[in-house]
Amino acid sequence: MYAYKEKLKAINLYFKYESYAAVINELGYPSRLALRNWVEEHKRFGDVKKNITRRAKYTEQQKQTAVDHYLEYGKCYARTIRMLGYPSRALLTNWVMELAPQPRKFKRNGINLTTGEKEAAALALLTRNTSAQEVANNFGVSREALYQYKDQLLGKDVSSNKVKKSHDTDVNQLQDQVKQLREEIYYLQMQKEILEKAGEMIKKDHGIILEKLTNQEKTRLIDAFRPKYKLSQLLAFIDIPKSSYCYHKKQLALPDKYNDVREQIIGIFKEGKRRYGYRRIHASLKNIGIILSEKIVRRIMREENLVAKSIKMRKYNSYDGEISPAVPNVLERDFKADKINAKWLTDITEFRIPSGKVYLSPMIDCFDGALVSWTMSTTPDAELVNTMLDQAMQTLQAREKPVVHTDRGAHYRWPGWIDRMDSHNLIRSMSKKGCSPDNAACEGFFGRLKNEFFYGESWLGVSLETFIDQLDDYLVWYNHERIKLSLGGISIVKHRKTLSCVA
């Protein structure tokens, strides 16, 4: 039933297009016959009839009473209509569908089921858990027809017992699969929790490999999950014999005899700002009277995850071509010196931070690795190296004429550098072109410097001036406080004092 406005809209479009098809394509309604009738009616009477809304014949209370009676007294339409005297069967059916929608029994009188419906009915008959009559009622057919479908499609030899047995087999297989999947989920959940807990307890940065854990670490890991998982499952998953687990469990229950030393090792590591490995920490302990093997120190550091900074490659290159003739390599990679101020090494290294670049030019004494002098600047110019050389030469005694070894960088081939060297009778020595091992001792210092001071730190928001101040503090600390194993585990300045070389 179309509204009055919808009819007028269709009629007006027809008068505009003069085509029934065009109107129906645009509006999607009505049928061609209905539109033609509307147009004819409009031509004859100048308008079309308006829809008449009839007042409801039955109240909502009457509808609800009829539906309640139907549901309460056997769901029989005829009885409800006979007892109440209203409504029609069709109207009562609509009320039931509206107010009490639910599955209803139905019959198909003279209507044949499709092949698919027959197959479904036959399968339901053979796999039923109820009576055959209930299955027939659900499909709206008689009990006899249901068995006929089974005989036609599956044959008379197929009984419900055989189908049920096959059905039970399928169910058992599915149950086995569900059980297997649950076991896999349980195993994966245990694996996930163990790996996460191992990461928290052992605190390794590059992931956890259970096979590489020590038996003591595995024992601690198992104890963390004993309340939740069985011991046999944990031993098998973490791969540790039960005897080893029991042994380390007893060992862990004993007091930690290295507890005090452990705290001192952590303190030394933090004071050194993560720059000391186990050898220097072992030497530091020895200096304060604590005798402990390097193996124990290394083990405690591993347990506490005390890892020194790693070395990275240098990038700055000061080579700028053959500006002046190169001098021979006097040192020939012999960086050992029998006295102070006999062999000096120098080079330039670059520090790149978000604020910019800083360049360092130090002078290193081969005798004990002391920093004779150093300068820092934001540009690697001649003033950087010349000022450093002037400061270094001020520390020399009258008869001291050290060999100054450099690479073939442009700074050491400019006239300013050469004039200063000649005026103080210092001996120049240069590495071969592109051969960094010829100045390996200086390169080694730069590696230690960046490993201990630069790498692994966040320099975001640090100005160049602040960075230069911090670098200068490190270089002072390097001379006065940093211990060297080659000097017997003491600092450079302290070593020189023992030799009466520093007042």
From TrEMBL:
Top-level taxon of the source organism: Bacteria
GO biological process, one term: DNA integration
Domain annotation Integrase catalytic: ranges: 324-500
Coiled coil: 164-198
GO molecular function: sequence-specific DNA binding
InterPro entries, alphabetized: Homeodomain-like_sf, HTH-like_dom, Integrase_cat-core, RNaseH-like_sf, RNaseH_sf, Transpos_IS3, Transposase_IS3/IS150/IS904, Trp_repressor/repl_initiator
Classification via PROSITE patterns: INTEGRASE (PS50994)
Alphabetical keyword list: Coiled coil
Transmembrane feature ranges: none
Known function: Involved in the transposition of the insertion sequence.
NCBIfam families with a match to the protein in the record: transpos_IS3
Protein name: IS3 family transposase
Organism of provenance: Lentibacillus cibarius
Top-level taxonomy: Bacteria, Bacillati, Bacillota, Bacilli, Bacillales
